[in-house]
Specification:
Length: 336
């Protein structure tokens, strides 16, 4: 899909911007308060990113090669594949073996866990085989559609699948990302607490996609609710002016963890239907746009033991370039 312009200059221009900054994000950044800031991306496997000559060395041809290389460039990554398919323990074990012991994985909750639809064919065979006939033929299912015992099994399999990350100390948090049709209500808040309970003590963070959670009427209550339960609010930078647009508010609601996710600002594709997902995030931030967030991230880092900064604009090398740039800015490196 053609795009272009200053925020889509192409792989070569993005690579040029990041060429002198290859080590900028390779280590966690010390915060003045004594905490740490980790900077990384929300993918390491997108096809536009793994294409030859984009980010990985020419000889990084296997999944093992790519994760090993990535983990020496950044101290954290977000796993988004778990949103589409329940994770497997065997895969998590491989991730642990292929990364340094202080490398961190933030893991997105499966769609069924946050009120979103999943493709039936991507559910584990045991769950598919147990579906009632009227559900088995549907191409997509919501958690509310499933018999309670099968939904319970999905939650169990998710936790089991990421157990190696938890056991190794490499699990940062489980990202509970709620869609734009989940509005602030007692039912929704109870659902968030239920999700944390189902995850049995795993660290969780909450991202909203409906601006109503932080409008004038609800903002105080929303942030107080999260703070009362020590649930990290996921701060976001993204397109504005849409129903799912979250304002770029700085709010730390847990003393343990703060998270900032950068989605790009490509408004025309953010809520568009029928386009490849990667097109929503095909946006290279300018250095001035990244610089807007430096004091905000530093502010967050004074209130949390650890701060995760995740670039979700994972088209080609846009996310990796911007991750290196914002890490350099956080280190007070001058970018010409």
């Amino acid at each position: 899909m053609p795009y272009g312009g200053p925020h889509d200059p192409g792989v070569a221009d993005a690579a040029g911007r990041g060429a002198a900054l290859e080590d900028a994000a390779s280590q966690s950044i010390a915060a003045p308060s004594g905490g740490w800031i980790r900077v990384g991306t929300a993918s390491w496997t997108d096809p536009t990113m793994t294409a030859t000559g984009v980010f990985y060395p020419i000889d990084a041809r296997t999944a093992e090669d790519r994760l090993t290389f990535y983990a020496h460039q950044f101290p954290i990554v977000e796993v988004d594949a778990t949103y589409y398919a329940l994770p497997s323990r065997a895969t998590s074990e491989l991730w642990v073996r292929r990364t340094p012991p202080d490398f961190t994985f933030d893991v997105k909750a499966h769609a069924l866990m946050t009120g979103q639809p999943t493709e039936t064919r991507r559910l584990p065979k045991a769950i598919r085989d147990a579906l009632p006939a009227d559900l088995a033929v549907k191409p997509r299912l919501y958690g509310k559609d499933l018999p309670p015992e099968l939904l319970d099994e999905a939650w169990r399999l998710f936790a089991e699948g990421i157990e190696p990350l938890r056991a190794s100390g490499q699990l940062g948090s489980v990202l509970l990302q709620y869609p734009r049709w989940v509005f602030p209500s007692s039912e929704a808040r109870d659902g968030i607490l239920e999700a944390r309970e189902r995850l049995g003590g795993l660290a969780c963070a909450v991202e909203f996609r409906s601006a109503s959670w932080l409008n004038e009427k609800n903002a105080e209550r929303t942030l107080r609710f999260l703070a009362d339960h020590a649930l990290p609010y996921v701060m976001v930078d993204g397109p504005q002016g849409l129903p799912s647009s979250m304002p770029p508010v700085v709010a730390v609601t847990s003393p343990d963890l703060a998270i900032v996710r950068f989605h790009g600002r490509r408004a025309e594709t953010w809520e568009a239907a029928g386009i490849p997902t990667v097109e929503r995030f095909r946006y290279l931030y300018s250095r001035a746009e990244l610089a807007e967030w430096v004091p905000r991230i530093r502010e967050a880092a004074t209130a949390a033991r650890e701060t995760h900064v995740l670039l979700n604009n994972c088209f080609a090398n846009y996310g990796t370039t911007n991750a290196r740039e914002i890490a350099a800015l956080l280190r007070d490196v001058r970018l010409d």
